[in-house]
Amino acid sequence: MNTSTIMNGAPAVSPKPTSRMSLANTRDGILDSPMRILIYGGEKIGKSTFAAGAPAPVWLGADAGTDHLSIRRLPQPETFKEVLEGIHEVATNGKAAGIKTLVLDPLNWFEALVVADVVGDSGKTLAEWGPYGKGTQAAMDRWRQLKNALEQAWVAGLNVILCAHSHVKKFEDPEGPGYERYELAMNKDAAGMFKQWVDAILFARPDSFGKIDPTTKKAKAYGSSARMLYTELNPAYDAGNRWRLPSEMPLSWAAFIEAKTEGQKQLGVLRKQIEDGLRELNDPEVEKKVRLYLADPKNDVAEIANAVAAKVAERREQSVGKEG
């Protein structure tokens, strides 16, 4: 007799397999994920020292520039293949070896290895290597491989910190006169890809500013010896974060973690306000729009919370009016 038959003789209905994407498997609240950080600025500003404060870091990159730091290092890679091998090794065996953070330093340094992997010993530049931008496209393929390898390290539970040098470039504003700004000193498309991937873009520079000297009528630099981190977008540089960091803070890992912890607490409060408001509104269209706004890290969670609160207040006033 078929074991799928029940006592009344009717075939038993096999339970439908439960999808891993079932609503029963949803998770509430802010996820405590490893950090993905890009910190850039001028040479010798303190980027590597900042990264050295991260939990149990290991370095991959050029030995020069960090020889003053007592840090754990992988051998300096000589080829792009060795770069990928180093990242894979950390992603696979890093946690078992007590590593919690992978640092690439400086990110710009890897560009030469990327180009060499494309052109080989041809002696050609990327532009000369193939027609129609073939060389540049091949180089971007390598950069994507590098980013995907870093993604695997991050998925494996490791923090990833990318240190990079900056340079000053003229920005041609389509809506006004051009101006100079700090940018990553590397391929623009690759830089954009990494900036999109990380959770925080931090710009490091001395605490300085310029103003007009009343006597000479010329611009003069002022400031202190303090080194600062800037976390919000500015016409002079790119910056941003998903952790509600203050717009500027000391260039210190301890200061950064303290600010991040406080920012996460504020985000938790704001997101609870939003969820409470959405439950009260019980409006699928409003909830859909709010979810879309929340999914974009460029949007300010505080502004979204204020908008939801205003909608709740409006709905309450309408309810009072109907009752009256």
Provide structural commentary.
With 324 residues, the protein is of the alpha/beta class. Helix content is 40%, strand content 21%. The chain has nine helices and ten strands. Strands 1, 2, 3, 4, 5, 6, 7, 8, 9 and 10 form a ten-stranded mixed β-sheet that branches. A hairpin with a 7-residue loop joins strand 5 (159-171) and strand 6. Helix 2 packs parallel to helix 5 and helix 3 (110-119) crosses helix 5 (134-155). The longest helix is centred in the C-terminal third of the chain and has 29 residues, at 253-281. Residues 1-7 have low confidence and may be disordered.
Brief synopsis:
The chain has 324 residues and is an alpha/beta fold. It contains 9 helices and 10 strands.
Question: Topology, please?
Answer:
Elements: E1 36-41, H1 47-52, E2 57-61, E3 72-73, H2 80-93, E4 101-105, H3 110-119, H4 126-129, H5 134-155, E5 159-171, E6 179-184, H6 188-197, E7 200-212, E8 219-230, E9 240-241, E10 248-250, H7 253-281, H8 284-295, H9 301-323
Parallel strand pairs: 1-5, 1-7, 2-3, 2-4, 4-5
Antiparallel strand pairs: 5-6, 7-8, 7-9, 8-10
Instruction: Give the low-confidence spans.
Output: 1-7
Mean pLDDT: 87
Biggest sheet: strands, sense, closure? Answer: 10 strands, mixed
Strand content: 15-25%
Portion in helices? 40-55%
Our count of helices gives 9
Shape: globular
Secondary-structure element pattern, one letter each: EHEEHEHHHEEHEEEEHHH
Q: What's the count of strands?
A: 10
Structural class: alpha/beta
Radius of gyration: 26 Å
How far the N terminus sits from the C terminus, by CA atoms, comes to 70 Å
